[in-house]
């Protein structure tokens, strides 16, 4: 048994202490800390937070030699147990790493627990030492007495842990216990509503994958950290770590779901869907994780993109949002992709492979060089689903369940996706996959949606859209974050970081000032500032696209209405 003991060394200094005890170590026992966490495709160098490493066998100090940036070798003598202790600095409030202060603690195992080379497949146990008064522990990792046990190292680090004083609620979905942990909520937080709405999501997704059968886990835990400003989630095999604005949580007396709460429900739906789609049904490239380096796959468009397609769709199918709201959310995704010039430069398959250096390392040119495998991947899912449904052969729901059955809930490749699509569709969809996944052309969404009684219209462009730039305003300064390729701002000579001072003689201080100006097509004088120097430029005449809106067709025929109701109802 490989054992870890975790203690709060100094909450005010944000330090955990970890002690690893290893029976019968090798003569030269290799140890290392992962450089990344599965589900977040960036080398994060967790070892930079380790310090004060010491190793002993009984009373004898054991030489611990650093082999590389995240690895060490313990030179042991005999088979006496090796005890390694170290301190971990924890002050990352995201869902990906570790955090500790006087009010709360949280950690993922990838940033905490050294991996014992050659012994990864053995059982691992974790014991959490004495905590500050009143603190609780929440994790999906099974408890064995006063310890938590994992079958192997992969399972150990796939269970985040929340520590502190928090709200705890529970429910059963399809007979399976679920817990919801919320830290940092306001006093007006309505936990019962959150539990009820989450239960509807969980029951719908279990039914989606398994019908009346049990899901592939015995217990599930949601860990939500409510903060003043933040949003995100990271999936795990029997839990998820979430972060959201505390003002977006449901409140006592709240009659209707605001946009913030709907966004939170979409996040919950997204991460829960990952329990199947990426944690079990996963890229064959991820059959075994290599924690020492990047792990490449071209399939994030499927595992993240298709999950992004189903997250809001599940909200509609469970009645948590109506058709109009769902179409509004779908239009937001469409506009996001259409407003990304990089969609004509990079395919979603390429974007998946390049996630390590592009998606997770955004800069001012990202919008021009790449496309999101989340957003465009979700539209690929939409296009495939509507294509299958309009041809009357099956649905994307059938494809997802077919892939689960084909793989036994395990690794798959793109060839498996293509094969099941052909089985469900009654024909090969290789041409569509080549164009939509490996190509950079536009997706045929407008004609497809029309077959489902959904009207596609384009609003007149506002001046901000005509400008061809992404902006931010702060402290009375209106700055360009990104300049879109081929847009008016680029042709005027503007660059990322420039401050917009005035357009057509009107002083600008905030983004709303642009909306107040007429979006005409004539050239307009523009005053900007770069490096404290004023630039007198001309914004050229340019045609621009306005935002797409999606609504139910008022005059849709019976076939279109029936198709739309089946699609949005899950039939």
Give a verbal description of the structure:
The chain has 571 residues and is of the alpha+beta class. Helices cover 29% and strands 28% of the residues. The protein is built from 17 helices and 31 strands. The strands form seven sheets. The protein has an eight-stranded mixed sheet. Strands 25, 26, 27, 28, 29 and 30 form a six-stranded antiparallel sheet that branches. Helix 5 packs antiparallel against helix 6 (323-338). It is globular.
How many runs of DSSP E, i.e. beta strands?
A: 31
Structural class: alpha+beta
Give the fraction of residues assigned to helices. 25-40%
Strand content: 25-35%
Mean pLDDT: 95
Q: Enumerate how many helices there are, as a single number.
A: 17
User: What is the overall shape?
Assistant: globular
Structure described in brief:
The mean pLDDT is 95. Helix content is 29%, strand content 28%. By secondary structure, the chain is an alpha+beta fold.
